[in-house]
């Protein structure tokens, strides 16, 4: 029995692909991170960053937290900050879906919208400048080791145990890269032969939650040695696959999950045999005001 909402973070289901997997000699599993209480994989990192920060004393009940986000991390941080009684300001581009903004505010967060022209980079610049003011503390998911450690301690072990150690390939979209860094570190310790596959957008594609970072904004927690291969996915393919995923597998998720699924299916076609686990990072209901499912 769970006595605290945070006890429900993690231990998300692994679901076998029933219809989309093109290779009968390969098992393709989807890890349903939308089943977390905040609706995304980011619940894991948010809990670790806030809880561990409080335990170390780097933040206190008086701290005014600030963080730039494209959406899912902000929702998770708003939820966790509320549970711990902390103030938080979340900064995101003004073209974020209204569901995301409204959800953050419902959890009690202050939401600041920056120009869509400068994207998440502009939101990060704003948050970094504000963090220099007295009383503010930026969690900085892009450089915070608790981001990837959350996945080293939870996501990686869950995948290893859920596949009885038979996983051969792990596929994840890359945004802050916390998910892929932490999971890779754990799985490689268990079996160095496991292949870690990252997913990023093609040039000029815009996929919420996945980025091709300019060098100056590359997450500090990212270590390219922990990723064996990177697959590029176009915005149109990610959009199409998000719709197919819902219609064929009954998995309602966002565009970044569509991108990861597209990459996982390409990978499955190449293999003679194997066990692939692909991250489904959130739920599709936070995209209903966009044109993703139209």
TrEMBL record:
Keywords per UniProt: Amino-acid biosynthesis, Cysteine biosynthesis, Pyridoxal phosphate, Transferase
Names of the cofactor(s): pyridoxal 5'-phosphate
Top-rank lineage group of the source organism: Bacteria
Pathway: Amino-acid biosynthesis; L-cysteine biosynthesis; L-cysteine from L-serine: step 2/2
Name this protein carries in UniProt: Cysteine synthase
EC number per UniProt: 2.5.1.47
GO biological process: cysteine biosynthetic process from serine
Example of a GO MF term: cysteine synthase activity
Binding of pyridoxal 5'-phosphate, residues: 72, 175-179, 256
In-chain residues carrying the UniProt-annotated modification N6-(pyridoxal phosphate)lysine: 42
A Pfam family annotated for this UniProt entry: PALP
Reactions accelerated catalytically: O-acetyl-L-serine + hydrogen sulfide = L-cysteine + acetate
Organism: Zeaxanthinibacter enoshimensis
Family: Belongs to the cysteine synthase/cystathionine beta-synthase family.
Domain Tryptophan synthase beta chain-like PALP: 6-282
InterPro entries to which the protein is assigned, alphabetical: Cys_synth (IPR005856), Cys_Synth/Cystath_Beta-Synth (IPR050214), CysM (IPR005858), P-phosphate_BS (IPR001216), TrpB-like_PALP (IPR001926), TrpB-like_PALP_sf (IPR036052)
């Amino acid at each position: 029995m769970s006595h605290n909402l945070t006890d429900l973070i993690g231990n998300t289901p692994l679901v076998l692909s029933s219809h989309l997997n093109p290779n009968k000699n390969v098992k393709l599993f989807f890890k349903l991170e939308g089943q977390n209480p905040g609706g995304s994989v980011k619940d894991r990192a948010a809990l670790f960053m806030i809880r561990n920060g409080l335990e170390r004393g780097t933040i206190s009940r008086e701290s005014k937290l600030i963080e730039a986000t494209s959406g899912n991390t902000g929702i998770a941080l708003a939820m966790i900050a509320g549970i711990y009684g902390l103030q938080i300001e979340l900064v995101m581009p003004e073209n974020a879906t209204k569901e995301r903004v409204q959800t953050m505010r419902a959890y009690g967060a202050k939401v600041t919208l920056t120009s869509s022209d400068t994207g998440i980079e502009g939101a990060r610049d704003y948050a970094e400048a504000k963090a220099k003011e007295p009383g503010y503390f930026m969690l900085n998911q892009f450089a915070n080791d608790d981001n990837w450690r959350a996945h080293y301690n939870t996501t990686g072990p869950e995948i290893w145990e859920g596949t009885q150690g038979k996983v051969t390939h792990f596929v994840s979209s890359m945004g802050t890269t916390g998910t892929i860094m932490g999971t890779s570190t754990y799985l490689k310790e268990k079996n160095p032969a496991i292949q870690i596959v990252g997913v990023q957008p093609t040039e000029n594609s815009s996929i919420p939650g996945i980025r091709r970072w300019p060098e100056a904004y590359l997450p500090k927690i990212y270590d390219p040695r922990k990723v064996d291969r990177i697959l590029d996915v176009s915005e149109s393919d990610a959009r199409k696959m998000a719709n197919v995923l819902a219609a064929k597998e009954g998995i309602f998720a966002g565009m970044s999950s569509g991108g990861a699924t597209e990459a996982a299916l390409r990978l499955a076609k190449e293999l003679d045999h194997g066990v692939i686990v692909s991250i489904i990072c959130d739920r599709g209901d936070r995209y209903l005001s966009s044109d993703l499912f139209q």
